[in-house]
Write a structure and sequence with these properties.
Length: 242
Amino acid sequence: MKKCVLISLAILTCMACDPIIYAPSSQHVPVLKGKGDMEIEASYADTGFTQGAAVAAAGGVGEQDGIGASLNILRGIENDTEQRSALNFFEAYYIRHGLVGENPKFVWAIAPGIGYAGTRAEDDQLIEFKASFIRPFVQPSIGFASRNFEAILSARLGYVGYLSAKSEPLSQDFMELFKENGNQVIFEPALTLRAGGEFVKVHTQLVLSTFNFDYEDVSQLFFYDNASFSLGLQFYIAKSRE
């Protein structure tokens, strides 16, 4: 009976505001060369149900060590102008990097980190849905990096753990539903390509995701994406080579 009530309230809420509960964020895979290097990326991102901006920065704190952070600000692509939705990610991570063998053009990195995301949807009737989750992860990568071109394969293994999921003004808590169907281990492979000059390159990336929210008819009311495409610019400051 309780689950029937949850489903009924979910349908009533979500038909009004179309909440987007998950989309893969852009993966940051900088090619750092040493201590003092800095890398900044700014991209347009599109996941299907959302589009927006992705920015990331990383810096070398040792010869093979770096730290980084990224922010994805995504907005729902609405067919109805009375509906508004947003999905925002923030991530921070440590980066360990090096060369594959002695070849300076083949690089590897591993980046453990943690992310936080918040999603929100509302309409002109003031029906609102909010959810948030954390996403700890580890992200190994390997690729080719020359002066003018980079091609990097990365694979993120992470866990999506919802912290809250509720609607207003119904004051209905959907945490039980999200714990059972939203909390999960995810795998997200990505391909990153960059081309241009030594310090400025055009950047593009495709990310895929195994995320799945499947609970009867509710899965058709809580929207999510399984792919992300981004296109932008990368800026590199090579202090290690000065």
